[in-house]
Write a structure and sequence with these properties.
Order of helices and strands: EEHEHHEEEHEHE
CATH class: Alpha Beta
Helix content: 10-25%
CATH topology: Ubiquitin-like (UB roll)
Shape: elongated
Strand content: 25-35%
Strand order of the largest sheet: 2-1-4-3
CATH architecture: Roll
Radius of gyration: 17 Å
Mean pLDDT: 87
Oligomer: single chain
Largest sheet: 4 strands, mixed
CATH superfamily: Phosphatidylinositol 3-kinase Catalytic Subunit, Chain A, domain 1
């Protein structure tokens, strides 16, 4: 059986690893010194709940069963393993004196948070097309495909500001 390339997310930058679909998740994580510690969880793939249905105030997801094979967990298709993260990440988005909160899975992308925030704040899609999320307090604007777990660095809370995207002069 051919090996599969996977992205292992922990606290910080993702690492590319290779494993067999028949490998057990626990063994793969142990091999890469990535087993979750007490109070930490493992999730597979990405969450799109907030993007597909932004009305609920939290995501429902179940941590991965470490005793299953990568194939049984759907990893040949999903390709992302998120380990050592909290069960959920509480996100606050600040905009015009409002600060809505929502609980997201750690394997949610920034793009889903942005979609939820614009919906929750009743921002017209055309009027809000230039709005992006800026991390508080760093001021960093994360990529839309960044995972919350990679940004939170082990924390269970993130705060963003909704700001107009700044394009340098001459940028296309």
């Amino acid at each position: 059986m051919n090996s599969i390339e996977l992205f292992l997310h922990g606290a910080g930058r993702p690492v590319v690893i290779e494993a067999q679909p028949s490998d057990v998740l626990h063994d793969v994580l142990a091999k890469h010194d990535a087993l979750p510690r007490q109070g930490e969880f493992v999730y597979i793939g990405e969450v799109r709940h907030a993007q597909d249905n932004p009305d609920p105030e939290h995501d429902e997801q179940v941590p991965a069963d470490l005793a299953l094979t990568l194939k049984d967990l759907g990893l040949p298709d999903k390709r992302h393993i998120h380990t050592r993260g909290p069960r959920v990440i509480a996100v606050t988005v600040e905009f015009n004196g409002q600060s809505p909160h929502r609980v997201f899975g750690p394997h949610t992308m920034v793009e889903a948070v942005l979609v939820w925030a614009k919906h929750r704040l009743h921002i017209d899609p055309v009027a809000g097309a230039e709005l992006v999320l800026e991390m508080v307090p760093s001021g960093e604007v994360p990529r839309m495909d960044a995972y919350l777990s990679d940004l939170a660095l082990g924390s269970a809370e993130l705060t963003f500001k909704l700001v107009k995207e700044v394009n340098p002069q001459g940028a296309v």
